Amino acid sequence: MLNVLYIALLVAFVFCVIAFLVVRVKQGGVKALFLKTISAVLFILSSFVALSIKPENYYYGVFIVIGLVFGMLGDIWLDLKYVHKDFDTPYTFAGMISFLIGHIFYVVGILAAYPEFIGWQIALAILSAVAVTLIVRLASKKMGFEYGKFSLLTLIYSVVTMLTVTFALNAVNAFGWLPILAGAPTPEIMPRLLCMNIGTVMFALSDLVLSFVFFKKGGNTSRNVVLNHSVYFTSQFILALSILM
């Protein structure tokens, strides 16, 4: 029964996302915000069902669910800026902070899924996240991105976003790819970490596209809007799916 409910929620989620993208590109406004919120609610409901199907993943799944909830809040704030344009700045700040908090919960979820992390792995993940963020920031400056009053927050947000990627990547690499490729038994936790890895990478890519929309002159195009949301919602689906692994 729960499996059927999970599939039904995912089907409804896909249709709702498609409807949102059509409305968002053609007219935007309150209707687009409503469809986006419903889409977010559907993938959060799917994560609750996934947690009910796999209650043994509770200590991991609960952090992912909380992260998804903050993602939904970020979605609402960022679309409200298009509905109430006079409040563009506070809504943008609120949206980015919500997503930032969500990423912190994703990192904690990774640590809950793979508690064997040791000091040097944590240090490597943090240093890698900082290094990638600085490289991307320098490249974006040369490409003409203008962050303005959001400069500090985008820098902090970028580091935290990359932390989810580097922590997930380090957790996967900890098992060693060569033994697995050589035919060694795949650790039971590997599918979950792989989903987490793919989901966090796609989330980071969606943020990269979103930076074109928000901070690059001429970047707020229909193509970028569709690409951003398509990659973002796919990442949310994969993160929710990881609870089942």
Keywords for this entry:
9 helices; 0% strand; mainly alpha; 245 residues; 82% helix
Short recap of the structure:
By secondary structure, this protein is mainly α. The chain is built from 9 helices and no strands.
Q: Care to describe what's here?
A:
- This protein has 245 residues and is mainly alpha-helical.
- 82% of the residues lie in helices and 0% in strands.
- The protein contains nine helices and no strands.
- The chain has helices at 2-26, 29-53, 58-83, 88-113, 119-142, 151-173, 177-181, 190-215, 222-241.
- Helix 6 runs antiparallel to helix 8 and helix 8 (190-215) packs antiparallel against helix 9.
- The radius of gyration is 18 Å and the shape is globular.
- The two termini are 18 Å apart.
- 38% of the residues are buried.
- The mean pLDDT is 84.
**DSSP helix count?**
9
Between the first and last Cα atoms, what is the distance in angstroms?
18 Å
Q: Which stretches of 5+ consecutive residues score pLDDT under 50?
A: none
Mean pLDDT across residues: 84
Describe the SSE topology.
Layout (H helix, E strand, L loop, with lengths): L1 H25 L2 H25 L4 H26 L4 H26 L5 H24 L8 H23 L3 H5 L8 H26 L6 H20 L4
Helix pairs in contact: 1-2, 1-9, 2-3, 2-9, 3-4, 4-6, 5-6, 6-8, 8-9
